[in-house]
Design brief:
By secondary structure, this protein is α+β, with helices and mostly antiparallel strands. The protein folds into two domains: 101 residues, no CATH class; 203 residues, no CATH class. Helices cover 19% and strands 28% of the residues. The longest helix has 23 residues.
């Protein structure tokens, strides 16, 4: 670790938060690999990380190959955390090693607070030749050369460029739903019963283009599909979720809901090598609300509107406040289920076998339509 200079853009509090995150994260991953008690699922990043807003799900084979590095990192952050007051430089070095392990584990560049956005994962030289991460994401690729080093001449013949179809419908979307305050299973007594996201859940929308040409995202808006009085529901809260700063708030109670930015606003630009993430927190008051997200875009002389939803169905947001009285007791809309046992007529007992009682996690991947 002595190869890294003791410099950082992070405040002492952010640095400590990042090292604590690395300690918990590596422990969780190693536990999932060895004993099956952790998780390799996607997770929101700490506030010390400004990009990405969520680390994608980990490929198990990649994680297994990196077990020695993960163990070494966990040991480093543990000792750095304990010696933080006496050896702050060790904390900085441990955080930088952690950044590089995260980039290798997830295959995405990691930008820390106070830095300019990183476009490619970092490349380091530690007692050997420089390594190059050769990867291609999206797009139509014809003449393509990837190498760590090249000796001799290289000849590339021109091609006609991206397919027209990629520019006519260029946006690829990934959506993940995360808890913000409480991780809760919420199943509504609908016909048929189905899970819904409690108000305040965080929607992480990742946007990437299939073309190498710039796609300009002009604006985003929500489209209300339905409103109705809340139905009876089974609500079982579990562990407290992460409290991270959100990027866009969305008041679905408004007559014409608008995304309100907390930082960078539209227009944004994406390409096959430069994705973007929207971190959206919708809130409802006293109604169940079905909604979709629409994003207007242009690419050269092509233009359109990308419609983002729950795999073809609208997103659905439920107001959990209606399940409690002002005194904090359960209201008539809440079933009498406990964390251990459901009551006999609970809607969660009537879910299809292939439907989970929670919407948290990745939404089935699909190409934005519209």
């Amino acid at each position: 670790m002595s190869d890294f200079p003791p410099k950082t853009t992070l405040s002492p509090a952010e640095l400590s938060e990042l090292v604590d995150f690395l300690d918990d994260y590596t422990t969780n991953i190693l536990g999932a690999l060895s004993m099956g008690i952790g998780s390799l699922a996607s997770v929101l990043t700490p506030s010390a990380v400004t990009w990405p807003h969520a680390f994608p799900k980990i490929d198990r084979s990649t994680a297994e190959e990196m077990v020695p590095e993960l163990r070494s990192l966990r040991k480093s952050v543990y000792h750095a955390g304990r010696a933080a007051l006496d050896l702050p430089d060790d904390l900085v070095r441990a955080a930088e090693v952690g950044r590089q392990v995260l980039e290798k584990l997830h295959g995405v560049p990691v930008t820390l607070s106070g830095e300019e956005r990183r476009r490619v994962p970092s490349v380091t030289q530690q007692g050997g030749p420089r390594s190059t991460d050769n990867s291609v994401v999206g797009g139509t690729h014809r003449n393509l050369i990837q190498a760590g080093s090249i000796a001799g001449g290289v000849h590339v013949h021109p091609t006609v460029g991206d397919d027209v179809g990629d520019m006519e419908n260029p946006i690829v979307v990934g959506v993940e739903i995360h808890p913000r305050e409480w991780h809760a299973d919420l199943v509504v007594d609908a016909s048929p019963p189905r899970p819904m996201a409690p108000s305040g859940s965080v929607y992480v929308v990742t946007l990437q283009a299939r073309t190498t040409r710039a796609v300009i995202l002009h604006r985003a808006r929500s489209v209300i599909v339905s409103r109705r009085q809340p139905r009876r529901a089974c609500y079982r809260a579990h562990i407290r979720g992460p409290l991270e700063p959100r990027k866009f708030s969305l008041d679905l109670e408004a007559g014409q809901p608008e995304l309100r930015p907390e930082g960078v606003d539209f227009p944004l630009t994406i390409s096959s090598v430069d994705p973007e993430q929207l971190w959206i927190e919708p809130a409802v008051g006293a109604e169940e609300v079905g909604w979709r997200l629409e994003i207007d875009w242009t690419c050269l002389d092509h233009h359109g509107t990308a419609v983002i939803d729950y795999g073809g169905d609208p997103f659905e947001t439920y107001p959990p406040e209606v399940l409690f009285t002002e005194g904090g007791a359960s209201s008539r809309l809440r079933t009498g289920c406990s964390l251990i046992q459901h009551e006999p007529d609970c809607p969660a007992l009537h879910l299809p076998h292939d439907v989970r009682p929670s919407v948290y996690g990745p939404v089935a991947p699909h190409r934005a339509h519209g």
